[in-house]
Amino acid sequence: MKVAIVILNWNGLSMMQRFLGGVVRHSGGAEVIVADNGSTDDSVTWLKAEMPEVRVIQLPRNYGFAEGYNQALRSVEAEYYLLLNSDVEVREGWLQSMLTYMDSHPEAAACQPKLLCQTKPESFEYAGASGGYLDRLGYPYCRGRVFSTVETDCHQYDKIAHCLWATGACLLIRSKDYWDAGGLDGRFFAHQEEIDLCWRIVARGRDVVCVPESVAYHVGGGTLEAGNPYKTFLNFRNNLFLLYKNLPAERLSTVLCRRFFLDALAFLGFLLTAQVKLACAVFRAWLSFWHMKSEFMPDRRENMEKAVCDPLSDAVGSILWQYYARRRKTWKQINDR
Questions:
Q1: How far is CA 254 from the centre of its chain?
Q2: What is the pLDDT of residue 337?
Q3: Is 10 within 8 Å of 39 (Cβ atoms)?
Q4: Residue from 315, 93, 121, 308 nearest 211 by CA
Q5: Residue 301 class from Cβ within 10 Å (0-12 exposed, 13-18 middle, 19+ buried)?
Q6: Per-residue pLDDT tens digits for 212-222
Q7: Dist. CA 90–CA 5, nearest whole Å
Q8: Termini Cα distance of the chain
Q9: Are 108 and 72 in contact, with CB atoms under 8 Å apart?
Q10: Which pLDDT band, with edges at 50, 70 and 90, does 226 fall under?
Q11: How far is CA 124 from the centre of its chain?
Q12: What is the pLDDT of residues 175-218, one digit of tens each?
């Protein structure tokens, strides 16, 4: 099989009812698979009754986004995996440009489409926009989205671009590269696991790109909304995990010290604005990181041994400084150096 489109579902019946039919119709005959992550709604019953052409993989419990995909993909044989969120709308021809690029560029391991907001299609979508990057302190941003600033799509990012990470909301990846890099890290559970995977891939000399001729439309926030303390916990903790796993030794201590200071400021900011649950989430994130850090030592050693380049060697110094001090709010402004 050439392409397997795999949708990881957890209690996402309403989203599948809205969007799954379009995925089947508009994907050029690619196999569509739903991996159900231990849902407690009627997802599996509905799939079997209404979408018999869709293969269902039933997982016994909710493994989270990262390990859920690992569990499901072990039983999928295809040249390419396409990891797709259940809340993504696709239209005719959405897949072909990405496949054409990947087939003609064997050095590319993974790519994403241009991701627009499903409810406001003139705007980029927060989760991936038109390709993802990190600054030298590990803060993620995108062509089309920096922190809370989401740009209108005026075709300013329509050129194919090499990036550091591609969004897990719609990620086309060679199955060989997926497993050669170790797959998604299940300890992340959810959030930033695709950044970690792509960082490993790029550090080992493979390419990750955005192919904006392909377009998909993402609802976003369907599982954990912005401001949810658990989402805050996962984002702060997992960002520390990916730094520890992937940063070269000569920068690791410096970056972690600076991040401790900046995260302490975030903690105080949440307290001063009476967002106590979010402040506690930041504190718990650091506790969890220090408690679990030793588990990641073997992964760190492997990543350092297999790295042939440092993907952050030419990264922007600090998008916090650029965004808040210099008032540079877009990818183009920040990268105009």
A1: 26
A2: 58
A3: yes
A4: 93
A5: exposed
A6: 999 999 997 54
A7: 12
A8: 44
A9: no
A10: low
A11: 15
A12: 999 999 999 999 999 999 999 999 999 999 999 999 999 999 99
Report the alpha-carbon angle 293-185-40, nearest 5: 115
Quote the CA–CA distance of 203 and 206 in Å, as a whole number.
Answer: 7
DSSP state of 145: E
- Give the phi and the psi of residue 37 in degrees, each rounded to 5: -95, 55
What whole-number distance in Å separates Cα of residue 91 and Cα of residue 297? 43
With 80 as the cut, is the pLDDT of residue 223 above it?
no
**In terms of C-beta density within 10 A (0-12 exposed, 13-18 middle, 19 or more buried), how is residue 313 classed?**
exposed
Each residue's pLDDT tens digit, 136-162: 999 999 999 999 999 999 999 999 999
On the CB side of 139, how many CA atoms lie within 13 Å of its CA?
19
The pair of three-digit structure tokens given for residue 198, joined into one six-digit string: 């792509």
Say if strands 132-134 and 80-84 run parallel, antiparallel, or are unpaired: unpaired
DSSP 139: -
Which residues are 171's β-sheet partners? 83
**How high is the pLDDT of residue 51?**
96
Closest CA to 286 of 325, 238, 230: 238
CA distance 278 to 98: 38
Query: What is the residue type of 290?
Result: W
Q: Which residue has the tokens 């038109």?
A: 130
Residues contacting 221, CB < 8 A, separation 6+: none
